[in-house]
Amino acid sequence: MFMDNPTNEENPMNTASTTPNAPTAETTQTPVTAHYKEPDWFTRHIFNSVVKGLTRLGVSVWGSRVLEHKGRTTGELHHVPVNLLTIDGTQYLVSPRGQTQWVRNVRHAGGHLVLVLGRRRQQYTAREIPAANSVPILRTYLRRWKFETGMFFDGVTPDSTDAEWAAVAADHPVFELS
Question: Which band of pLDDT confidence, cut at 50, 70 and 90, is reported for residue 10?
Fold first, then answer.
């Protein structure tokens, strides 16, 4: 038997709290799932491996670097290819796929990371840019790497309006490097 909005008095099997501020089905919100577009098999096993290999040999593919970061739980070093964007002398990392493992690990490490190109290893501290301020950076990033990452921006293009960019900016973390 189904009842509409039973209270504790109407349904003795209901043991939910009757405290006025206690969460109820009407007030409890489902947590928002973090935006993440997982790479397919080809990207993960072939493309990323080729780019990482070339970058480790010192060949930068359109500004590529290998990002070295420690895992949050294991402490193991992880290596992933990234595109290093430079605007007016300031360097940025953008996560076109969203809340990736490297983003979570860099946040957990207080922004500490290493970028590798050939034998050159540079330590950086990353500061996350608020989504409201990241639109010009994301626009520039997509203008440069649209052929590689455009499909992760849900139809937004470098020429999209600021309102369209504002709708997706929070899904693509941006970090300023120092």
Answer: very low
- Is residue 34 situated within a structural domain? no
Q: Looking at the domain assignment, is residue 101 inside a domain? A: yes
Asked if the structure places residue 163 within a domain, the reply is: yes
Residue at 143 is within a domain: yes
Look up the domain containing 65 and give its range. 41-177
Q: What is the pLDDT of residue 19?
A: 41
DSSP assignment of the chain equals ---SS--TTT-TT------TTS--TTTPPPPPPPPB----HHIIIIIHHHHHHHHHTT--SSSEEEEEEE-TTT--EEEEEEEEEEETTEEEEE-TTBS-HHHHHHHHTTTEEEEEETTEEEEEEEEEPPHHHHHHHHHHHHHHHHHHHGGGGTT--TTS-HHHHHHHHTTS-EEEE-
Residue with more model confidence, 175 or 2:
175
Q: Indicate which CATH number applies to the domain containing 50.
A: 2.30.110.10
Mean pLDDT, rounded, of the chain: 83
Q: How many domains does the chain have?
A: 1
Structure confidence by residue, pLDDT tens digits, 103-154: 999 999 999 999 999 999 999 999 999 999 999 999 999 999 998 888 888 8
